[in-house]
Structures are given as structure tokens and as C-alpha cells.
Automatic annotation (TrEMBL):
InterPro entries: TPR-like_helical_dom_sf, TPR_rpt. Keywords: TPR repeat. TPR repeats lie at residues 45-78, 113-146, 389-422, 427-460. This is Tetratricopeptide repeat protein. The lineage of its organism: Bacteria, Pseudomonadati, Bacteroidota, Cytophagia, Cytophagales. PROSITE patterns: TPR (PS50005), TPR_REGION (PS50293). SMART domains: TPR (SM00028). Pfam families: TPR_15, TPR_16, TPR_19.
Length: 578
């Protein structure tokens, strides 16, 4: 059994039309050339033409053209074949050749509407709008009662920015078919573009008068007025709609918008509540309204209304992920991060494909310092988005914080592989890879990662600090460490951590006097709250021969905490322990 699809049916229609054009043209034109072309030749031309149509049906347009050319060699002025040639070149996207054959076909038979419409369409495609308008004018002269020609002509005038002429054409079409919604819409669009807003409004009034009970006409008129800053004029139309249909959600929403712009918040909130009471208003629309409302709500009353509407939305649509995601947004704005995370998780369980929701979940995990949850959630996100570098990076960050450096390095390497070159994320990945590989004692890889990060951003504070400090601990590349450390403290002269890092580089390089200067500044800036800085200060004092002061600083460091494991031994033996 043959399966007739739409494309096949369309092709058949074109085929029958073209065959009809050929036959008509042959009858009309063969009498003129009876003496020049024999009946046998005409039959041969028809055979070539039929063969061409067969190839056209098979979408083998090149072969179709070959067959048509053979037919044209016999009957060169046959309008049907010329029209078929134009159609074939159009299929081959060769509009220039299509125009040549369409012009010839129309010259041969200028009363044929099909030829004229094809030629006008081709002129429009090539932006020959004046020529297209003239074709429609000639078609209108042949059939002045056909409204479609006026509408098509108006479209050409719009393309050519002859807007006054477009309005005239629409008016002529309207005289034939009466007030028409589509023509009114087009006229309003043109009139607004011309700056004739009053005329556009009058067109809307005429449409409403043609069917006063049609709600959509009133909605459209209100939208036209609102989009042209005529809000007060829009309100009566919306009130009229609500008189006809008190539950019309769209009218309530538009009124809410108008009242919000006027600063009448109580009325705005009331209209929103009425809109949300409409069960026929779909969840997606409600969610979109809420998002827009939340972004503009400034006063506490509006925020409370938004919050209550979201709770209603969640309660009435518990299986809709958008409602949970919006509720999560509101809870996060209120500072209830744990509850927000729970709502985002519900949204993700209902629809795993919302990338932003997963990002929100994992970021809140980190804020709540629930690193195990961050690992679980980032791995769930990776299952859904295996090619999203950000989720691999977050997963690597979580494993790094859990001191599982092997897993961290695997995830971070995958993040680096997936991140496009030049992305800002690259330097963050490389910075953390530098830390991770240092913890694994893979120092070459650590250095390479740090240097890759600095290549993107030479002033990355995190990288400059950690790379400098780790080099000093290893006592390697000390000139580089000193240069980076000096650059860091020049940028941040009051940062105790950075002052300590640079001082320790100087200490390793045995420049104890200079190290002392920076450590004393670090102690002051940190207000003696870092055991590491105070311990380092003691070490420098010891190297400078101030043994009693050194022991005093070591004891103070022990009281603060976060010191080296050798602090007790240093205090007991009153000397540095290597």
C-alpha cells in the first residue's frame, strides 16, 4: 500500500499544475507555429517534458532540466516549460536563473496568475521590491476582486519601506473582505512603525466593534496600549474583559503589571492572587510570572505575596520541578540556605536536566560545609552532564577538601580537558591542580599547573602565594619564589598571610634581617591570630641570635594553635629543630 506523505502530495499538485500549464501553452501557442512545428515534434516535446516532470518528482532536478532543455529546443517559447524550468532552478537555489525563466514564462502569458506569483516571489527573494509590486499591480488589474493580491502587494511595500502604500493595499483588501483580524494586525504593526499610534488604536477599535464579545480583541488592544505607554487607556479594556469573564487570568496579570507600574502594590498583589486562582493557567506561565514579579518586588508586602504564591504553586503542583526551583530561589534570598537546597534537590529529582539547579545545590553544599553532600550531588550532576567542566571542577574541589587528592586530581584533570581554552574556569582548575599535585608530592605537575594558571592571570593571588610558599618549603627555584613573593606583598602590603609567605622565602634564602621586617608586619596585620606566623617570627629571631625572644614567640604560637609538629621540641630544647 502506498504511503502518501505531505511532500509527495505537494509534488503531485505541482506536477499536475505544470502539466496543465504545458498543455494549455502548447494548445495556445502551437496554432501560431503550426507551419514551423509538426505534430510529431510537438509530441516529442511533450515526451521530453513528461520525462522532466518524472525527474522533478524524483527530486533529480539536474536531469529534469536536461529533459526540459530538449523540449525547449523544439518549442522555445512554451510558457509551461519555461515555468517548469524556473521551478527547477528555484529548487536548486539558483534564483538568478529561476528569474530568467519566470520572466520569459510571464512574457509569453502575462494573464497567468501562477506565473505572475512565482515571478513576484522571486523578485522579493532578490530584493527587487519595485518589480514585485508592479507584477502584483498587473495581477490586480486582471482580477481586482482577489484580496490575496492586495495583501501580498502590501507585504512587498513593507519590505521596501513604502509604508503608506502598504496601508492603501490593506485598505483595498479590506473593502473586498471586510474587517479581518489578520489584516488589522498587519495594519496596526505598520501604523505603529510609522509613529501613527492613534490610527493603530482606531484600527483595534474597528476590530472590537466587529465582534464586541471577542475577548482576544480586547486583550490585544490593551497590549497595544500598554506597549505604547498608554496604561490608563488600557485599564477599561481589561476591566471589560473581567466583566465578561471574571476568571480571565491574562487580564488579571496585565492589570497586576499596570498597578505595579503605578505603585499601587495592594491592587497588584490582589490581581496576581486572582490570576493564580485560575486552575486553567498552566504552571509554566505561573512560574514565568513569578520570576518576573520576584525580580521587581521591592517592598516587604510584595515579597510576602510572592512567597505565598510560590507556596501555593508548590502545594498545588508538587510534581512540577519549576515550582520547587522558584521556591528554592525565594528561600535562598531569605537566607534559609538549607531549605533552599532541599527544594532544589526536589526539583532535580523531578527533572535532572536543569543544569542551574544542580549548580545551586552543590554551591549551597559548600556554603553549608557539607562536603560529603557536595561529592554526592556533583557526581549525580556529572551522570546527567558528563561534558560539563564546572561539575567536574566542583567534584574535584570537594575531594580536595576531603584530602582525597587522587580522586581530586582525576576530576580536575577531566575538568581541564573539557574546558575550552581561554575560559576563566581554566585558571581556577590549574590553581587547584597545583595545590592537589603538591599534596601528592608530584612537584613537577604541581609547578606546571601553577605556571599554566599564571600564564592566564599573572596576578592570581592564590597561585602566587601557594606556589611561592611550596617552593620555599622545597628550597627550589628560590629566585622565582622571591620574585613572586615580592610581587604579592607589593600588591597587598597589609595582608599578613602574604607577608608571612614572602618572609619565609627570605628566611630560606638566609636574609634574616629582611625576613624579620616582613614578619613583624605580618604579626601586626594578623593581630597575632596565626600560630604559623608567630612561630616563623620566633624562628627568625633565633637565627638573629635573640634566643629568649624566640622561645617567647614559640610559646605564644603554641597558645594560638596551628603550628608545626616541632613546636614542643623547640620550646623544650630552646633551639631550632631541623
Amino acid at each position: 500500500m502506498m504511503n502518501f506523505n505531505l511532500r509527495y502530495i505537494t509534488s503531485l499538485l505541482v506536477t499536475f499544475l505544470v502539466i496543465a500549464q504545458f498543455s494549455y501553452a502548447q494548445k495556445r501557442e502551437s496554432s501560431k507555429k503550426k507551419e514551423e512545428t509538426s505534430q510529431a515534434q510537438l509530441l516529442e516535446a511533450e515526451s521530453f517534458f513528461t520525462e522532466g516532470m518524472k525527474f522533478y518528482m524524483m527530486e533529480d532536478y539536474d536531469k529534469a532540466i536536461e529533459a526540459y532543455e530538449k523540449a525547449l529546443a523544439i518549442v522555445p517559447d512554451n510558457s509551461g516549460i519555461l515555468y517548469a524550468m524556473s521551478n527547477n532552478y528555484l529548487k536548486l537555489k539558483d534564483e538568478s536563473k529561476a528569474i530568467i525563466y519566470a520572466e520569459k514564462a510571464f512574457q509569453q502569458n502575462s494573464t497567468n496568475e501562477t506565473y505572475g506569483e512565482l515571478l513576484a516571489d522571486l523578485y522579493v527573494r532578490k530584493q527587487k521590491y519595485d518589480a514585485a509590486a508592479k507584477i502584483y499591480q498587473s495581477l490586480i488589474a486582471l482580477n481586482p476582486s482577489k484580496s490575496e493580491f492586495y495583501v501580498a502587494q502590501a507585504a512587498v511595500y513593507i519590505f521596501d519601506n513604502h509604508l503608506d502604500e502598504a496601508i492603501k493595499s490593506y485598505n483595498r483588501a479590506e473593502k473586498i473582505i471586510g474587517i479581518n483580524e489578520e489584516i488589522t494586525r498587519q495594519k496596526q504593526m505598520v501604523l505603529v512603525k510609522m509613529g501613527k499610534v492613534e490610527d493603530a488604536i482606531k484600527e483595534g477599535e474597528k476590530l472590537i466593534a466587529s465582534d464586541p464579545e471577542e475577548i482576544d480583541y480586547n486583550i490585544d488592544q490593551a497590549e497595544l496600549l500598554m506597549s505604547n505607554k498608554r496604561n490608563d487607556q488600557a485599564i477599561p479594556y481589561l476591566e471589560k474583559i473581567l466583566t465578561m469573564n471574571p476568571e480571565n487570568a491574562q487580564a488579571h496579570i496585565m492589570l497586576a503589571q499596570l498597578y505595579q507600574e503605578k505603585g499601587e502594590i495592594e491592587k497588584c498583589n490582589r490581581e496576581l492572587e486572582l490570576a493564580f486562582a485560575d486552575a486553567s493557567l498552566d504552571v509554566t506561565t505561573k512560574a514565568r510570572i513569578l520570576i518576573g514579579y520576584m525580580n521587581t518586588a521591592k517592598d516587604e508586602k510584595s515579597k510576602e505575596t510572592a512567597f505565598n504564591l510560590v507556596k501555593i504553586l508548590v502545594k498545588t503542583n508538587p510534581q512540577d520541578p519549576k515550582s520547587h526551583a522558584i521556591y528554592g530561589d525565594l528561600l535562598f534570598q531569605k537566607g534559609d540556605e538549607k531549605s533552599a537546597r532541599d527544594e532544589y534537590v526536589k526539583a532535580a529529582r523531578l527533572d535532572k536536566s536543569i543544569n542551574e539547579v544542580w549548580g545551586n545545590i552543590i554551591n549551597i553544599d559548600f556554603k553549608l560545609r557539607q562536603i560529603d553532600s557536595a561529592i554526592v550531588h556533583s557526581e549525580e550532576a556529572i551522570e546527567v552532564f558528563p561534558n560539563q567542566a564546572a561539575f567536574w571542577y566542583l567534584n574535584g574541589s570537594a575531594y580536595y577538601q576531603k584530602r582525597n587528592h587522587n580522586k581530586a586530581s582525576e576530576s580536575l584533570e577531566e575538568a581541564r580537558r573539557l574546558t575550552p581554552e581561554g575560559s576563566e574556569l581554566v585558571q581556577h582548575i590549574n590553581a587547584l591542580l597545583g595545590d592537589t599535585y603538591n599534596s601528592l608530592s608530584k612537584y613537577q605537575k604541581s609547578d606546571e599547573a601553577y605556571e599554566a594558571a599564571l600564564k592566564v592571570d599573572p596576578n592570581n593571588d592564590h597561585v602566587l602565594n601557594n606556589y611561592t610558599y611550596f617552593l620555599s618549603l622545597r628550597k627550589e627555584k628560590m629566585e622565582l619564589a622571591a620574585e613572586m613573593g615580592a610581587r604579592l606583598v607589593e600588591k597587598h602590603p597589609d595582608n599578613g598571610t602574604y607577608l608571612d609567605t614572602y618572609a619565609w622565602v627570605l628566611y630560606v634564602m638566609k636574609d634574616y634581617n629582611k625576613a624579620r621586617i616582613y614578619l613583624e608586619r605580618a604579626v601586626v596585620q594578623n593581630k597575632s591570630n596565626s600560630g604559623t606566623i608567630v612561630e616563623h617570627y620566633g624562628d627568625v629571631l633565633f637565627q638573629l641570635g635573640e634566643k629568649e625572644k624566640a622561645v617567647e614567640q614559640w610559646k605564644k604560637a603554641k597558645t594560638i594553635g596551628s603550628t608545626s609538629t616541632l613546636i614542643d621540641k623547640k620550646i623544650a630544647e630552646m633551639k631550632l629543630i631541623e
